[in-house]
Amino acid sequence: MRILAITPHIPYPLNGGERIREYHLLKRAAQHHDIWIAGFTYSQDYVPPLMEFCQGVETVPFERYRNQLMRQIPGLVRYAIEGKPLEHRFKYSQALVDKLRALQTQVQFDIVQIEESHMALYREFLAAGRYKTLLVLHNITAPQYKRIYQTEKRLLPKFRAGLYARQMEHWEPEYAGRFDKCVTVSSVEEKMLLQLNPRLNITTVPNGVDTKQYEPLPAPEPNNHQLIFVGNMRYAPGVDAAIYMATEILPIVRESVPDAELWIVGREPTPEVQALASDIVHVTGEVPEVLPYYQKGAVSVVALRSGGGTRLKILEAMGMGRPVVSTTIGAEGLEVVDGKHILIGDNRETFAAHTVRLLKDRQLYTNIVAQARQLVVSRYDWDALADQMNVIYDELVPQRVN
For position 71, what pLDDT does the model report? Predict the structure, then answer.
């Protein structure tokens, strides 16, 4: 069948959780179906890798519309009158609408798959009734932004997070009901949505990891006390987690392990994150490949206090044989057992104590690594998750013979 995926950013390069998920699942879907992708991009250089498995990739340049607020005011007023979330106006592009309309005249799609709820309004520019529609929700927005509101210190971002959470609490579950099918990335978020809108046709397909690519690394030396935190250092929850880890947890860890150091690995670190850099805190910025940092690291730390979805970086660390210490929020949605696959700490003292235990107790370290690797292979491999997506496609368009 023919599937069009509309994405916030085309899924390349693989430097963000959403892009990694979209890339791996769409690439595997292309083994059975014809795939087109349409979305924003920073560079046309990112298109050729996608054309290796796509029938077509339609792009428009990504603009930071938040830096052009005055030009957006008329549209924001219209969105407010129509009851649409104001933040979604910043994802609207007439150029993308024009490309979608032109593409619909050229290709008779069976399914249009929209990634993320802030792109859901592009459904209004689809030809009604011509194909099935599928919405993939990488996060449930209201609880995600409520948490950002609780941890954000700056007044304007705090106000925007609170307003967005309030708007999305009602709009997201209602608008999701206009799609033939919805997919969440965790059963926790599936239950949240069903409580708000029991009429939704919804299924969970979690995030995953390529267990063939991310094979277990050699165990670190006993005197290796390097901690690694991988994430998007422009994303507010990632920024908060980096600061929390570096300023509140690492000092406690160093009371027991004086040579412990922290590596913060991720693209676009904000000035607040860059200011953490020191002899014991290393801020890398964007790196071409995270593997060397996992090789040099001993423990993966995920000190997230806000956000949503499920953490691909946790799965990658588990796949590569690096034990994870996380908060409950950081591991939310993953079928992990505290003390078996991961260690959970929801305050700085407990988080630090778990980190020290892994650095000092080799038997605990080995057990966590082995059980976590077994879990990702059996439950979170992209191949198995792609099979789940193919079942959804076949249910949406059962008459098509592949």
Answer: 64
The dihedral sign for the CA sequence 251, 252, 253, 258: positive
Q: What is the dihedral of CA 310, 380, 215, 233, to 10 degrees?
A: -10
How far from each other are the two terminal CA atoms of the chain, in whole angstroms?
Answer: 7
CATH 3.40.390.10 for domain 2-208+382-396, yes or no, is: no
The residues spanned by each domain of the chain are 2-208+382-396, 226-379
Say how many C-beta atoms besides its own lie within 10 A of residue 199's C-beta.
10
Q: How would you classify the pairing of strands 202-204 and 226-230?
A: unpaired
The type of residue at 214 is Y
Task: Map tokens 């206009």 to a residue.
Answer: 178
In angstroms, the CA 364 to CA 388 distance is 34
Taking residues 229-233, report their average pLDDT: 92
- Which segments within 141-235 are labelled E, that is strand? 181-184, 202-204, 226-230
Query: What residues contact residue 277 under an 8 Å CB cut-off, 6+ apart?
Result: 283
pLDDT at 68: 56
- CA pair distance 330, 345, nearest whole angstrom: 10
Calculate the average pLDDT of the chain. 92
Helix (H) / strand (E) containing 264: strand 261-265
Judge contact between 91 and 8, C-beta under 8 A. Answer: yes
Which spans in 207-311 are helix H? 236-244, 250-256, 271-274, 291-296
Predicted pLDDT at 245: 98
- Please name the residues in contact with 185: beta carbons below 8 A apart, sequence gap of 6 or more: 21, 137, 138, 139, 204, 205, 206, 207, 309, 310, 333
Closest CA to 39 of 106, 114, 105: 114
pLDDT at 306: 83
- Reported as a single tens digit per residue, the pLDDT across 168-217 is 999 999 999 999 999 999 998 999 999 999 999 999 999 999 999 889 99
Question: Is-same-fold flag (2-208+382-396; 226-379)?
Answer: yes
CATH: 1.10.10.10, 3.40.50.2000, 3.10.20.30, 3.30.460.10. Which one for 226-379? Answer: 3.40.50.2000
- Which residues in 117-210 belong to E strands, given as ranges? 132-137, 181-184, 202-204
Identify the CA nearest to 38 among candidates 90, 89, 109: 109
pTM of the full structure: 0.88
